[in-house]
Amino acid sequence: MGNIHNLSLIRQCFSYFSDEKISFPIADYRVPKLTVMKCTKLIMTSQLAKWESYRQISRALRTSETLQESLELTSISASQISRKLPEIPTEWLESLFLDIMGKVKLLLPTATSKIGAVRIIDSTCIKLPANLAEWAHVNRTHTQIKIHVRVLALPTGQTLPEKAIPSTGNVSDVETVDLLVEDDSTIYVMDRGYIKYKQFDAWLKREVRFVNRINENNGVWHVEQELPIPSNTKITRDAIVRLGSAFRRTKQTLRLVEFRDEKDRKYRLVTSCFDLSATEIADIYRQRWLIELFFKWMKQHLRLVKLYSYEPQGVWNQIFLALITYAIAMHIQLSSGTSLSLWDVLQSVRNCWEKNLSIFEAELHRKPSRSSRGRQKVPKVQKSPPKLHTSVGIIKPRKTEGK
């Protein structure tokens, strides 16, 4: 956080947008009030505050002197915001997101485990109203878009989003995977949506390290070697194989690892990591669940379920503005040294966005009023129904067990 404590928190958040050398001559041509930069900051504020509509954004601007001073804008209509959001250059928002995430990475510990960095790739769907987004029509029952995302799994259990590709819902995961996988020492973890034998061969040729779950119907064409199964583990098979059938198969050998989880569900993984143990490969795949938690967090805490705009570029822009908000919250969490979770930091931002930085920083480092021993087990005692001090309402005692 900054050192100027008399500044408002929202103005500090705006400092992530270095706007001195940025201009948008086409989008801002003959625009007297709502420029691209001001609209971006306004929508980002709405993500932080979780405002529900253009009208609420317009109302918040009219009633907030702090926001007016920070934006140098006293009022704007909901319709003007609606028209401006799709005009923001999406490439600039993507670049801004990557820039803030680069600053976040500088604050992360450099130490990694012996297996190296683990990156997870997956996609999530967002439904759109069929009558407002015909361009996203998939079939008779689905009108939706997808967000294809790559995240870095952190030792703390958090995820750091590194890349996002929005698309219509009819774009398969396989079609975007080449844009998300890079030739480095990273281990890429993917689910069953990324099964493609030609892709596996290409990755093996490029020495890309990956762990990919496959289906039961993905057969084994040839077994080159059965490897010993470690004892006292959930591993059921470890083999060097070629996948496929007489019609379609891999040209190169892969490692096949099969294991069962705590609920006895079977998992089949193929990987290019021949140097790791089968147990390590199973543990790496278990980290895939982190990206599901990331998607859930974004949809619950940022405005990614009910969108402001249903125009394609308006939707893309709101996705990247949500990711920018996530990046800012994570940067605040790491740079401040607070012990609060990312969700608690975002809640504190929402409560203090108009207040001075000193108030917000005190909230980030507030000590509990009393120490807690945690939740204690209390023996269950049959309680009598509470007494009512009014003649209104009825409380009927529940029946006790065994009677």
From TrEMBL:
Domain Transposase IS4-like: 118-327
Disulfide bond recorded as keyword: no
Region (Disordered) residue spans: 368-403
GO biological process: DNA transposition
Entry keyword set: DNA recombination, DNA-binding, Transposition
One Pfam family recorded for the sequence: DDE_Tnp_1
Basic residues bias locations: 368-380
Keyword DNA-binding annotated: yes
Annotated GO MF terms: DNA binding; transposase activity
Protein family per UniProt: Belongs to the transposase 11 family.
Protein known as: IS4 family transposase
Species of the source: Paenibacillus oralis
